[in-house]
Write a structure and sequence with these properties.
It is a single chain. With about 525 residues, this protein is an alpha+beta fold. It is about 55% helix and about 20% strand. The chain has a six-stranded mixed beta sheet with strand order 11-10-16-15-9-12. A four-stranded antiparallel beta sheet has the order 7-8-2-18. A hairpin with a 2-residue loop joins strand 5 and strand 6. Helix 1 packs antiparallel against helix 10 and helix 5 runs antiparallel to helix 6.
Length: about 525
C-alpha cells in the first residue's frame, strides 16, 4: 500500500510555511515578515505600577453634579441663592424659601437619586441643604474610574505601537503595565500619564488679568496659564470657570500641518451632539475669545469670528510633530477619569534579556538533545522517526508564535520544553503499542496500523485534558502564566499533529509496499 499523496502534501506544506514564518526571527533580511515577539523578561523594557487617584474621580463627579444641579434648578424654575461643592462628595445648596425647597425635594429623587439629603437647616427664610453622594455611588465611581483608566491606558499604548503589552489591574486602585522592547521610556510615561481633559471655556475679558495674577481673581473666573509660542514663558489667561464643552464628545483627532509654515496642529472632530453644542457656543459668543484648555493648560484662545458648524476645531501650539502625534493619541483614546501617578518603575535592560534568552535556549537545547538521543538509542530506527517528528513539532510551535504574534517569555520557553516531553510521550505510547502487536504475530505493516489506531484515543484523552487546562490558564491567567499557556497550547496542538499524522506518514512511506519482516523498534 502506497502512502496517500495528499497527506504528504499537507505535511510538506506545513513544514515550508512554518519555515517561512520562523526565518524572519533569525534573519529579517531574508524574509521581512513579523518576528516572534519577546516578553519583558527576554527582550527588556519598562515595568510600571500606576495608582489612580480615585478620590479625585469622586471630586470630579461631584463637581459635574453641581453644574447639572444648577442647570436643572433653572429649568425647573426653582429659586436658589447658591450651589457649591463642599468637599469631595458633598454639595451645599441654598434655596430661597420653603416652597422652593419642597419643589426641589420632589424632583431630586427622580433626577439625582445618587444624592442623599444629609442635612437641612432653615435660617431667616433660607433653607440650606447639604447633599451627599451615597456610599454605594462613591464605591461605584472609584471602581469605574480604575476600569476606565485601564481601558484608556490600553488604548493609548495600542496606538503607541508596543507589541504585546501586559496591562492589568492590581489591588483596588493600581494598574500594572509592562512594555517589552520600549525604546523611549520617558515618552511612554508622558503618554500614559497625561490626563487629557479637554475643555472649552470663554475668556473673561471684562476683568483684569494683571489683578488676577496679583491674587485678586473675580468670582466665577479662574486664572490659568498657557505656554507661549516660544515655549519659554507662561502666558496668564483669565477664564470663565464654566466649561462649555468637553472632550467626551470627540470622535477623532489627527495631526495636520498648516499651509503657510508647515507647523503641526491637531485637528479634532465632534460627534453629532458635540457638533450641535459647538455650533451653539460659537453662535452665541461671536467676537469673543474661546480658550481651548487641555489639562488646565491653555493651548490657544482664538476669537470666534462666526458660528462654526460641522463639528471641527483645531488645537494649535508650539508642537513638535512627535508632541502633536502623542496629543492626538491621548485625545482619540479619551481622557483619564482621574489623575494617575507612578508609584513603581523598573527598566529591564537588554543584557538581562539576552542572558535570559541564552539560558532558556540552552536549557531547551540540552533537554531536546537528551530526549533525541534517548529515543534513537532505545527505539532504534523508530526513535529516529520520532526525533524527526519532534523537530517538526518545535518548528510548528515557532511558526504559531510568529503567525499569531504571541509573546515568548521565559515561562513560555518552559512550556516548549514541557511540550517536547509530551510529544515524545505520545510516540512512546504508539511504539509500545506496536511492540504489543508484533508480539501477537502481526505483520510489520499491520502492527504499525493497529498501533497508531489503538494508541490514538489514549493520546487524544491525555492531550485534550491538558489542552483544557492550558485554555483556562490563558483565559484567567496573567503575565508569565499566560505566556506559559500560549506555548503549551500551541505545543499540544502541534504534538497531536506530529505524533498521529507526521510519524504515521513516515512509517507508511518506509514500510508500505515492501516485504519487511522486522521493524527496528
Amino acid at each position: 500500500m502506497r502512502p496517500i499523496p495528499w497527506k504528504a502534501i499537507i505535511v510538506f506544506s506545513a513544514v515550508i510555511i512554518s519555515a517561512i514564518l520562523v526565518i524572519p526571527t533569525f534573519n529579517n533580511d531574508i524574509w521581512p515578515y513579523k518576528q516572534i515577539n519577546l516578553g519583558l523578561d527576554l527582550q527588556g523594557g519598562m515595568h510600571l505600577v500606576m495608582e489612580v487617584d480615585t478620590d479625585k474621580a469622586v471630586e470630579n463627579r461631584t463637581q459635574r453634579l453641581v453644574t447639572e444641579l444648577r442647570d436643572e434648578l433653572k429649568s425647573e424654575r426653582i429659586n436658589y441663592h447658591s450651589v457649591s461643592k463642599k468637599n469631595n462628595s458633598e454639595i451645599v445648596l441654598s434655596i430661597a424659601d420653603n416652597d422652593n425647597y419642597q419643589k426641589f425635594k420632589d424632583f431630586k429623587e427622580d433626577r439625582f437619586s445618587e444624592l442623599d439629603l444629609a442635612k437641612t437647616e432653615t435660617k431667616e427664610g433660607t433653607t440650606q441643604v447639604i447633599l451627599e453622594l451615597k456610599e454605594n455611588e462613591v464605591k461605584n465611581i472609584k471602581k469605574l474610574s480604575v476600569a476606565q483608566a485601564l481601558e484608556t491606558i490600553r488604548g493609548r499604548i495600542d496606538e503607541f505601537g508596543v507589541s504585546e503589552p501586559d496591562i492589568r489591574k492590581t489591588g483596588e486602585n493600581r494598574i500594572l503595565i509592562q512594555l517589552p522592547g520600549i525604546d523611549d521610556p520617558e515618552r511612554a510615561k508622558n503618554l500614559i500619564g497625561k490626563t487629557a481633559q479637554l475643555e472649552f471655556k470663554l475668556v473673561d475679558e471684562e476683568n483684569s488679568v494683571s489683578k488676577a495674577v496679583e491674587g485678586r481673581v473675580p468670582m466665577g473666573s479662574e486664572l490659568t496659564y498657557g505656554v507661549s509660542d516660544t515655549g519659554t514663558s507662561k502666558t496668564p489667561y483669565l477664564l470663565k470657570k464654566r466649561t462649555l464643552l468637553t472632550g467626551e464628545y470627540l470622535t477623532n483627532a489627527r495631526v495636520n500641518f498648516d499651509t503657510q509654515f508647515n507647523d503641526p496642529y491637531v485637528s479634532i472632530e465632534f460627534n453629532t451632539k458635540g457638533a450641535r453644542i459647538f455650533e451653539r457656543i460659537t453662535g452665541e459668543n461671536t467676537q469673543k475669545r474661546l480658550a481651548i484648555v487641555l489639562d488646565n493648560k491653555v493651548y490657544s484662545a482664538p476669537v470666534i469670528q462666526d458660528k462654526i458648524s460641522g463639528g471641527r476645531a483645531q488645537i494649535t501650539g508650539s508642537f513638535t510633530v512627535e508632541e502633536a502625534r502623542d496629543l492626538a493619541i491621548v485625545l482619540r483614546a479619551g481622557a483619564l477619569p482621574a489623575p494617575v501617578k507612578i508609584i513603581e518603575e523598573r527598566t529591564v535592560g537588554p543584557t538581562l534579556g539576552a542572558d535570559s534568552i541564552k539560558q532558556g535556549l540552552i536549557s531547551m537545547a540540552v533537554g531536546g538533545i537528551v530526549v533525541i538521543l534517548f529515543m534513537a538509542v532505545y527505539y532504534s530506527a523508530a526513535g529516529i522517526i520520532a526525533d524527526i517528528a519532534l523537530l517538526i513539532n518545535i518548528l510548528l510551535i515557532g511558526a504559531g508564535l510568529a503567525a499569531f504574534q504571541a509573546t515568548l517569555t521565559l515561562p513560555g520557553i518552559a512550556g516548549i520544553i514541557l511540550t517536547i516531553g509530551m510529544a515524545v510521550d505520545a510516540n512512546v505510547l504508539i511504539f509500545e503499542r506496536i511492540r504489543e502487536e508484533l508480539r501477537l504475530g502481526m505483520s510489520p505493516f499491520m502492527a504499525i496500523s493497529n498501533g497508531f489506531d489503538r494508541a490514538a484515543l489514549t493520546i487524544l484523552d491525555a492531550n485534550v485534558t491538558t489542552l483544557i487546562a492550558a485554555v483556562v490558564l490563558f483565559q484567567f491567567g496573567t503575565g508569565p502564566v499566560k505566556g506559559f499557556a500560549v506555548t503549551l497550547t500551541l505545543g499540544i496542538l502541534s504534538s497531536l499533529f506530529t505524533a498521529l499524522f507526521v510519524s504515521r506518514i513516515i512509517f507508511e512511506y518506509i514500510y508500505s509496499g515492501k516485504r519487511i519482516k522486522k521493524i527496528h523498534i
